[in-house]
């Protein structure tokens, strides 16, 4: 048996020759494993089909299984129009099946041809569902794999020097297709990008000696320059790369390069060096010596004359990648496709870390850049321990902020389906399962979940279905206990000077936006939008809750919008979205956002004002209740003297006196008279829930309750605090003055 291996475009091909006796039947099966790489938002599986003749029974089946769910599946027509629409797709949530089965007649190049039209690449593209902000962490059988693929990020600005081989060997189709590709690539540049072009043969020329912005005028001039290139002469790769690096260094030294930007060189060549330094190892050493750590080199090798191994080495050594371009009819498309993979850098300096002594044999966990539509993968072994969770921490720099993401995976560190050898061992395993289930609140065959209604009139018992075919871990549904409910947004105002808590509800309508804090002096606005319950009985009042909380910081133009679905961070130009599915820390200018997975968001502005938003999840099938948000604003916030709003006005604590304590209509609740802001109010001794420490059960806060939507305790009427938008809604000074001076009779 003879084995031969040769490189193909994107993968390895293996050729095997065997001796088959005459008249015998031989069946070949090839089993192999290949790590799918995500590019331009898809995993792509390619099969090279070259039967060389008509095949009576020709069939290709591609089966896809993704436990996290399949987002989309595509079968692009890469075999040509002859086979358009012949690939059939069936799919479900987690599985997909693609079949390509042309009949004998359909395989023919023409109706009466005896040759096969099947000659090319059969491609299947798909992507997976991602529930969290940026990826997933999985633990199985003592190993872990961390997939990192954030979305909804704005591209980093880039500084790019195109280094193009225009030697004599590029004459003809190679140059024509390179020029075609460059026309499209240059159109992709934006005003935030800086670029130049270096073309070389035995000499080196620069279209511009300095980087210029990607304006329409500059791009048009660059396209004209490339269009007029006439290939001739030798190949001086070393000098061309030196010139490109010098251009980036000069721009960096002169402060032209945005420190948040990404700098790269894109080399396009088809041959070995013939002029100047021709020793490949010396060129490699020269380039590495002058390349700064923040620069990257990407290489495109056209055809088979080029030393592709050299281009790959020089790229990998300088934080880039290489790609072979085949001189076929679609060479320009190959160049454009490669550029698309690296043209939208979203993050830089990415590091994935794990707690000490928790993992070993970790693959690469430091990455220079993350490009849109790609994926970073870190894998390794989980070290034996008593812990039932594995955490990972990912730090990165984005266009306008830095952030840290934390991923957490819960697992049982013993084989789940194995039988315990002794009763003692079984009890220990059972106890660990129970502890894990209670801590993270999911149902197992060993646990049940009791859900009790607010009035204790209804109880629901949720058990995990016991399926003997699925083993002990099947059906582990994460049904969360719902916290108690109240009608309408309730507020607890702590008055430290008076040593008391005052509570009031706002009886408003779904869709209304309430101004909570307006501080022109600090430049901060906090607003909350109300949502209503799903359904109410006739004549019953609609319950309302906070569905969205917005924090706007005017000096930096940054708004953080927290809803029950996601967290959005925008600065007017860039918008970044995060789900509740992962822990993350994001810092942009003077605004810091800390997300605790499925729990809370902390927004801190200029280290002076903090807003905490708690997430309350409910049973999705509940007939009336909806997910909602809780809002907590600490007393030590450093407001300016201009602060106002439903909560902000109490930054300046009013004088309060409570007297005439007596029995109320409810024998369990006392009543009294409160004197505040020139008003005498009838108040009731009661309590409200505080969920900061316990997000599920809460703790009781004893307070004096103000009736009629806080009338007399807040300045003006609550309707004065209804605003039309979630952002940029400061109270004008004259409105604040009017509200402050308004006197409401008791």
UniProtKB/TrEMBL annotation:
Its keywords, alphabetically, are: Glycoprotein, Protease inhibitor, Secreted, Serine protease inhibitor, Signal
> Could you tell me the superkingdom of the organism this chain comes from?
Eukaryota
Enumerate the Gene3D superfamilies for this protein: von Willebrand factor, type A domain (3.40.50.410)
InterPro entries linked to this entry? ITI_HC_C, ITIH, VWF_A, vWFA_dom_sf
> What GO terms describe the biological role, i.e. biological process, of this protein?
hyaluronan metabolic process
A matching Pfam family? VWA
Q: Name one GO molecular function term.
A: serine-type endopeptidase inhibitor activity
Single GO cellular component term = extracellular region
Enumerate the subcellular locations listed in this protein's record, separating them with semicolons: Secreted
Ranges for domain VWFA = 159-342
The record's comment on protein family reads: Belongs to the ITIH family.
Q: What is this protein called?
A: Inter-alpha-trypsin inhibitor heavy chain 2
